[in-house]
Fold this sequence. Notes:
Blueprint: H1 2-32, E1 35-47, E2 50-61, H2 64-84, E3 92-94, E4 98-101, E5 117-127, H3 130-139, E6 160-162, H4 166-191, E7 195-203, E8 208-211, E9 219-233
Amino acid sequence: MKNFRIEAIILAIGLLLLGVFIEKGFSKFAEKDRSVTVKGLAEIEVPANKVTWPLVYKSLGNDLGRLYDDIKRSNQTITGFLKEKGLTEQEISVNAPEIIDLAAERYGNNQNPANRYNVTTVITVTSDKVDLIRGLISEQGELLKRGIAITSGEYQYKVQYEYTDLNKVKPQMIEEATKNAREAAEKFAKDSGSNLGKIRQANQGQFSITDRDPNTPYIKKIRVVTTIDYSLEN
């Protein structure tokens, strides 16, 4: 009988200790899964460092030979103007003219147009001299004095500004976004009565480059959002 009591006491103590260990194990397991996921934003504004400027003009006529000569002279006039203003030949590209024969248009209403041929010519400037080009765009009316009317307003011939040095600003932006994410996580941990632990998982996110606004396309906004998962500790 005495041995039975001793065995029962030992069994009871063992079960008690087992319960304590199980409780602590569940507690640690629960703490292990406690985490907070936060996002960190970084934004900067930079000036565009590349510009593509299409200069478009149209020619009308009935004699293709004469139109060719006129277009050739106009191209020389425009390229001469651009070089006078500081651009190099490598920055100027003369595209082949696009010719529409109005008399051959199957669905046209006018079978006897006053001018049979409608020719569109595009000279494209591609340069890193963004400020110079912006000045020239405002001065292109000077070509009117030389007998050339530049067409504007067509969507496919818009001036395009780009920023091509993203790799130069990536490190500092990722650092700032990560710092902002950590500040948010620390605030959450403090409010919940926890301590912020290590990073469990991080996602850098995509960089985006957009115009600052419709009126200043030559100023670019670069944006990145990082997503970071931190562990929480008691």
